[in-house]
Task: structure prediction
Amino acid sequence: MEIVLLLFSALLTTVVALECEFCSSSTGNTCSGHYEICQSSDSRCRVTLTETTLGNIRSAVLEKSCGSVYNCTHPPSLTTNGYQVRVSTVCCDTDHCNIGTVNLSPVNDTLNGESCPSCFARDSDQCEMQTVVNCTGEEHKCVYFTVSRYRGSTITMAGCASESVTASQGKAAFRGLMVEMANYNEHNGAGSLRPGPVIMSLVIITAIFT
Result:
């Protein structure tokens, strides 16, 4: 009887597993690719548009994939005086529901009345926070961290961040190249913000080192 129950449980898990489209594009508002079965922690198919601004250079990447409920309800947002990340996300919970062109909601860029000390420095593991940036949307924390490309350049920045950025110690805001992060620190609202203890982790990032 126990063996039968285990087999039934495995069969049920297979039946209810979600299947979503996976693809990415930096040239349009849709893409098409292959299907994958989602992991048990990912109960949604999603479409995300990640828009980054580095100085005067803007880029956007659209992706389709599996995602968790948290991924869907907490899109990352980061604002510094030299680098900005905005993410729009649409999620659904049936097989292949993220295929085709999906209408994405506009990013919440409304000023929320909060501000953070800010800086942005290339090729440096520190930067002096002499300016203040106004936070938007769900950016309610001030952060400071250093991002280093593996065996390459280093950038240090400080500014406003949303919950998913702080919960991941900066990881959620970056996509693309394998990098290391260090000196992560955060606090609520404007004020003194100093580099924290070194915290090393591998993350993904796009555009920032190009």
Observations:
- The two ends are 60 Å apart (CA to CA).
- The chain has two domains: 17-92, 111-205.
- Confidence is low (pLDDT under 50) at residues 4-8, 195-210.
- Residues 77 and 204 are 15 Å apart (CA to CA).
